Here is the input.
Amino acid sequence: MNAKPAAETDTVAVLMGVYNGARFLREQIRTIGNQTVDHIDLWVSDDGSSDESPAILDSVASQWTKGGVHIVDGPQKGFSENFRSLMRNDGIDADYVAFSDQDDIWDADKLEVAIQALSSCGPDRPALYGSRTRIVDDNGRQTGLSPHFRRSPGFRNAIVQNIAGGNTMVANRAAWNVLSESARRTSFVSHDWWCYIMVTGCGGTFIYDPEPRLGYRQHGGNLVGDNISWRSRIARASRLFRGQLAAWSDRNLDGLRTCYDLLNEESRAVVDEFHSIRTEESTAGRLRRLRKSGIYRQTANGNFGLYVAALIDRL
Here is the structure.
């Protein structure tokens, strides 16, 4: 995917959730400031930091030259609600909206590449960009890559799996309108998974870039794991058997019912069928209906886990 210069008139809002992120916050913001796009408004929700994060943010606000800096107080209900509070903010107005963690390392062309990809969809079609990431350690040294998913993105995948981190995601204005409206109506498991669900669910386009555009820092303070190690795979299997996948499905379906009118007709049918599969009393019936539904995960192992979940009634 080749980058071309973003239009000089394009405006980008970068939404960052912060909580006690002082250790890496300056470096992350510096890589945002080094982006090749001209106009970036930085929106930061500080979720009650007790370290030097507020002072760092004040310093950034006084020196930022690419646009405006807006620092708001988070709801202090966890990272998902912190990002949701930003998604509900009526003051955010931009051609493109990106999400940012507080401790990553962005490539200088990260936003430019995303904008170029999204511009091919046209301004009226909701479109969301996401990419792979380089996994890096505390010192920024690469230790691996996130999975390369090869099946086409779509709502039948999104309803059971997220395929890109929020730190890679950029939405066009049409997608942002859907996402912000949905966030006003409902909470969700995580903002990135919900974005994938809603954009594909409304009939929009999800663009998956297999080329990493940022360093996703892994350290003891991460709330979300790297998704590639054996430890993370074992943890996912454990969550499945404990019913965590089922609990996430409950929340996603509750949210989708609240946003039913934002979905297209095909996605509404998928929601209804997924609900029917999960409430089917017959084990054979669940497995048969899951196969016919076309609902899928990206890998053979992932699909195996999906059918195991249906088998043990933990879907």
